[in-house]
Amino acid sequence: MVIALLTDFGTRDYFVAAMKGVILSINPKAAVVDITHEIPPQDVWTGAFVLKSAYKWFPRGTIFLAVVDPGVGTERAPLIIKTRRYFFVGPDNGLLSLAAEEDGVEELYRITGSLPRASSTFHGRDVFAPAAAYLSLGVEPPMLGIPTSRWTKLTMPKPRLENGVLYVNVIYIDRFGNAYTSAGAEIYQIASVGDKLCVETPAGEVLATFVKSYGYAQPGEAVMLVNSEGYLELAISMGNAAAKYGLRQGQELKIRRCQQK
């Protein structure tokens, strides 16, 4: 059984290793896979978005163990979510919600067990890792927690089109500095591939070419394209758009087709 890990722990410290140690102590045959441990610290939204983008490529039955947990040790619930094809284990702070809702939530449980003498600051090791490991052995969720109907959900912002202007939000910035937006195919309502787009950013207006893929642009050229996940993104060919234009998650961008001369 595959257990896929996503955290904001990084790899410098012992945190991820401790979680894997707990899992393998309970189920030595578990296949433990890393999605990423480089989610920015305490950034629940980015963790949720990355989990949503990654989960669907895993085999049916995969257990996703996600820990970005600034509320660890408080009254926030530890959750197991059974969806149509998967299990999700982690804190009830919205981290699991984008992926779980997309796959289709069937059952929700509040985890009631933990390792003996569980800490109040490392539930990834003491609560979530044991739950995921027992799930991988075939233990049913009702043996690990109590049913619940209350949980925290994040909402993906929606683009809007007004008078030829597409209003979008930056929802994710990848390691290349490409800024994913909340729009996708909506861009085709105002532009076609090859058009010039005027993009209002915090650093001022950017002239970007609407292209099919990065290779159709010259190095240093600003572009917009619909990426592999179906999101419209602002990028710089061979450059870093987020750094150059001061882009951050949550910002609003305004996009229009530039007047052709």
Structure overview:
This protein has 261 residues and is an alpha+beta fold. It folds into two domains: 2-147, Rossmann fold; 160-257, Elongation Factor Tu (Ef-tu), domain 3 (Beta Barrel), CATH 2.40.30. The chain is built from five helices and 15 strands. It has a seven-stranded mixed β-sheet with strand order 2-1-3-5-4-6-7, sandwiched between helices. Strands 9-10-14-13-12-11-15 form a seven-stranded mixed β-barrel. Strand 1 (2-7), helix 1 and strand 2 form a beta-alpha-beta unit. The protein is elongated. The mean pLDDT is 96. Pfam families: SAM_HAT_C (PF20257), SAM_HAT_N (PF01887). Residues 169-253 form the S-adenosyl-l-methionine hydroxide adenosyltransferase C-terminal domain. InterPro entries: SAM_HAT_C (IPR046470), SAM_HAT_N (IPR046469), SAM_OH_AdoTrfase (IPR002747), SAM_OH_AdoTrfase_C_sf (IPR023227), SAM_OH_AdoTrfase_N_sf (IPR023228). This is S-adenosyl-l-methionine hydroxide adenosyltransferase. Belongs to the SAM hydrolase / SAM-dependent halogenase family.
Question: How are the secondary structure elements laid out?
Answer:
Layout: E1 2-7, H1 15-26, E2 31-36, H2 44-54, E3 63-67, E4 78-83, E5 87-91, H3 97-103, E6 105-111, H4 123-136, E7 145-147, E8 160-162, E9 165-173, E10 179-181, E11 196-201, E12 204-210, E13 222-226, E14 232-236, H5 241-245, E15 252-257
Helix pairs in contact: 1-4, 2-3
